[in-house]
Design goal:
Number of domains: 2
Shape: elongated
Radius of gyration: 20 Å
Distance between the termini: 58 Å
Strand content: 15-25%
Amino acid sequence: MSRAQMTKSGHVYVLSNIGSFGEGIFKIGMTRRLEPADRVRELGDASVPFPFDVHMMISSDDAPTLENALHRALHRLRLNKIKPRKEFFRTDLDAIRQIVEQDHGEVDYVADAEALEYRQSFEMSEDDSEFIESLYEKLSDEDKNGGDDA
């Protein structure tokens, strides 16, 4: 495989995070990592309160071209029109799927976002919430007292 081919191969991902951005907002990007799930975890670790849900993870021999086709087709739906490197779009999954299928062929996708932590946060009982809060208070007290000396 040539170096040019190796630098083009990768994964194009379509993610959502309804707990952070609401319904109908998708992040469309690409990664050349061998484990693309590492990139998804990285995106959800620091700057957002909930992890991202993966709707599509498309392996491609020319990931930059597929990503670019999606971005071009959806450019009017971009959230941040000033900084195009912010790859968030207000659209629906079916529109994304149609673009992918035009440029790449049939693709498997997950229609509904699991949004597990987001949904669990709202379904948590008051007792469970108070219990978790008490654990945080206990940990905070231990930190203030220099930890456990046992």
